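Progress against Task 2.4 (sequence-to-structure conversion) is shown through the following example record, which the project officer requested during the mid-term review.
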Amino acid sequence: MPESTSAHTAFPWDETDAASVRAAVLSLVVTVGERIRRRDQVARKVNLTIGLAGGASVSRTRTLPAASGHTEDLRSAAYRILDGMALQRARVRRIVLTVEDLTAAGEGPGTQMSLDTEREARLRIEPVLDRLNTRWGHPVAKPAADYRHAS
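Structure tokens generated for the chain above:
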């Protein structure tokens, strides 16, 4: 099994709208999340690389508190990285999201039961959405913010 996987997107222009950049990051999170869940894997690290106008790039990695393949956990880490980069007025050309340190989902400690019923509901619906998207061959169900960015 692979130890990492990534997805990338490039803008046809220098993107300066923070909401569009965030939506693009979410789209990449959804892509890699579905990919690792399909392989029955979980990730320990999330790496985000932002390519800027002029050829420079900024890259940061965040270790997850617990290995996960859930979109919510991957999104949270990716957004924290993005927010920490403080890219105000940056001209973004490309984004690469990589999940690293992948292991089989059944390895390691089990998952502690959560008392957050809303989170548990979101995690239970995730495999259903994955099957729906796989059946139709393209994302027919995805987070609302992801619709801003064309996949």
